[in-house]
Amino acid sequence: MRKNPAQAAFTLVELLVVMAIIATLLAIAVPRYFSSLEKSRETALRQSLSVMREAIDRHYGDLGRYPDSLQELVSRRYLRSLPVDPVTGQADTWVTVAPEDSGKGNVRDVNSGAPGSGRDGTPYGSW
Q1: pLDDT tens per residue across span 64-88
Q2: Four-CA torsion 17, 22, 26, 28, nearest 10 degrees
């Protein structure tokens, strides 16, 4: 048995040192974590755009015209489902680009409708 319970407790200085160490580690780790999250969102956005553009090209190669909407790519099974924009978190923010010849469909290209810019400074809408 202990005779003096105060000897078993932490001192205020020891607690402050431990909290300072934890704060320093968090100051190092948190920015890297959020940076990696942003990088992964951008990578996912580029991949989603690439997949949709490839589906648009396959549609054009098979049928000789561009799709009338992104949903047509899903209904004709060029895509299983319309991907979610990883920046906005929604599947309905994609911005379509029409071809010069309006008789060849409505969707020649697709861009992100997310506001803001990527880590390289280019707007998401121009990717």
Answers
A1: 999 999 999 999 999 999 999 999 9
A2: 60
